[in-house]
Amino acid sequence: MPSDHDVAICGGCNSRIRWAITVNGKRQAINADPDREGNLAAHTDGTGTLKVRVLTAERPTLEHAEWRAMPHAATGCRPRPRAQRSSSRPGRRAAVRYGTWRPAR
């Protein structure tokens, strides 16, 4: 069972997540708690890095200290809508006014 020292909060849905490294070296958010239905095998390596691999037909079972995890994106994370930036003139778009070039006198 993993410890809670590396748990973060998802900025979109406020769920507990962990950041892991895939076998391809990419970062992936996974749910913080183990999941019996998860399709990932997660473990912490000797340097303290959380690593994940997909459970495949070639390696369908957990090995050594691995635990089942679920990708966070697969659990229906719905990011909060971002607030729109307000402009100084609502309803108007910024425009560029083109002119002719004149040499300085």
Main traits of this protein?
6 strands; 105 residues; three-stranded antiparallel sheet; mainly beta
Brief summary of the model shown:
0% of the residues lie in helices and 25% in strands. The protein is an all-beta fold and 105 residues long.
Describe the structure.
It contains no helices and six strands. It has strands at 8-9, 16-21, 27-31, 40-44, 50-54, 67-69. The strands form two sheets. A three-stranded antiparallel sheet has the order 1-2-3, with no helix packed on it. Strands 5-4-6 form a three-stranded antiparallel sheet, with no helix packed on it. A hairpin with a 5-residue loop joins β4 (40-44) and β5.
List strands and helices in order, with pairings.
Layout: E1 8-9, E2 16-21, E3 27-31, E4 40-44, E5 50-54, E6 67-69
Antiparallel strand pairs: 1-2, 2-3, 4-5, 4-6
Please give the order of strands in the largest beta sheet.
1-2-3
Please state the CA-atom Rg, rounded to the nearest Å. Answer: 23 Å
Helix content: under 10%
Taken in chain order, the helices and strands follow as: EEEEEE
Question: How is the biggest beta sheet arranged?
Answer: 3 strands, antiparallel
Structure class: mainly beta
Shape: elongated
Question: What is the overall number of helices?
Answer: 0
Binned strand content = 15-25%
- What's the count of strands? 6
Mean pLDDT: 84
List the uncertain runs. none
Distance between the termini: 77 Å
